Amino acid sequence: MAPHTRSGPAAAELPAATGAGGGRELPAEPPRWHAILAVRPSGLPLTVVVLVLAAMGAHLLVTAPSIQWHVVAHYFTSSEVLDGLVRTIELTVLAMAIGVGLGAVLAVMRMARNPVLSGSAGLYIWFFRGAPLLVQILFWFNLASFIPRLSLGVPFGPSFTSWDTNHLVTPFVAAVLGLGLNEAAYMSEIVRAGILSVDAGQGEAAAALGMKRGHVMRRIVLPQAMRVIVPPTGNQMIGMLKSSSLVSVTSMPELLYSVQLVYSRTFQTIPLLVVATLWYLLMTTVLSWGQYYVERHFGRGSARELPPTPLRRTLDRIGAALARLERATARAGLDKHTGEAA
What we know:
Layout lengths: L31 H6 L6 H20 L5 H8 L2 H32 L4 H16 L2 H9 L1 H4 L2 E5 L5 E6 H4 L2 H26 L3 H9 L4 H31 L11 H12 L2 H30 L11 H32 L1
Antiparallel strand pairs: 1-2
Helix pairs in contact: 3-13, 4-5, 4-9, 4-11, 4-12, 5-9, 6-9, 9-11, 10-11, 11-13, 12-13
């Protein structure tokens, strides 16, 4: 009985020649570029376009004479730039603290059955989301023109004491108020969406067991709502970091304004803007990684297996790419060896 044989494209993968001693002859290693092109032939045109554009961008950044990388390296850790960096971080942290805290209060008010509380929260959200952020910052910076003195006393009655507005609302305070109060309007909707994502039946079951409403919110609702709240909050914090550059219009010496002060003296505009860009990219990268680990922490109860860390995911992708490249190399070698044997 004749042995069973295979025909068709699959048979072409089997080598037909053997080496000395009856052993299989190893195919010659094909060129590396051949293996790369054999991985995804259907996506080859787009891959080539992306690689060419990336190479052009990298070449432009490295060779552009206007960037002056030695100037970038000199000012990257200068005292003026680092002072502005610290001020940017302070603005971001304080403004987000106001935004998250006040936003949570507004979210609870928005869901209240009391029409006064709900309407007041809705009016706040409508106003601060509708007015441009830059206008709000400028308003707080020029608050003394609107209210020259701030007083403490009986409403619509005598005041006990008063202060000069410019002494209380400094440029830093104006920047924090402008950024934080605007952020609270957006955070309130994020917190409200997270609370509404939790099944109402869980709160009703907890209330049936005798738990108070505040206890239910802290122990039952918020831990589950955090899975919905954390991702957009991370995005808002990254946006806040970049939006802090708007306060440069008030001569607030944050990162961007500090860089502007330097290049107004040295006339090295492009290198100093590259310095600011690199610092912003570095800080947003750190915040993105931190956001991932916070999401991973609050997502432990919702998934049987936690998602891999960014480093683990990167290593896995590199390993998978190398494995595909190795398989493509072996396949190309078999095809070449089969063609020579034929």
